[in-house]
Specification:
single chain, 237 residues, three-stranded antiparallel beta sheet, elongated
Amino acid sequence: MKKFDYVVWHNGVGTAGSDGKEFLVDSEGKPLNGVKYISVSQFIDGIATARDLNHKMFHINMKGEPLYEERYMWVSNICECGAYIASDGVDSEFHIDITGKPLYEERYKYVGNYRDGIAHVSKDDKAFHIDMKGNPIYAERFDAVYTFVNGIAKVKLDGNVFYIDKTGKAVDMLASYLKIGSREDTLYVHRNKDGVLLFLTGCFNGTLEEFEKAVNFEHKDRPVFFKQYMDIIELYK
């Protein structure tokens, strides 16, 4: 095997470095395609980002083949909901699909990864959430927003920190409990606009009575998790 400055392996494909450049090699150290890059990221699910000698970025497969013709200033190597983050200039971020096509025309100062089809973004010094088509999911604007977890997101506005639902309306958050149950979900306890006490975790969203019934059904034979939930339920009876 030829001597390189370094080689990082992933399922039989190596990213080798030599003379300040990176390229892909097979298990015998032979170049896969002879193409040199400024850098190649780690492969995730068989896909990596590459920065060419013109300082443009794109995605490649484990054969070193580009997944698309477009070239960007920057692309992420994390794919969520079938979308990557890309940038074509300063304060100009957006999402692309696996073929390199933008999901929408709008450009933002910052975009986060999608989760359950919703991403947090910022533009004109205001933050909010968008759907997979780049459309805001509510009219409100905040100083900062965070990822929705179980339908609830933390936001900041005028120095205040509070929580909103997917309509952008503030919820009366009473408490949040981390790493609860077998899936270590977050459990949120809040009141809706009618003052009804609601419990929200995973795919469950219901009243105290409904939550206790669900806990008895799902966790009666799992004493550790059953006690976790029941201890919380007793606080609100």
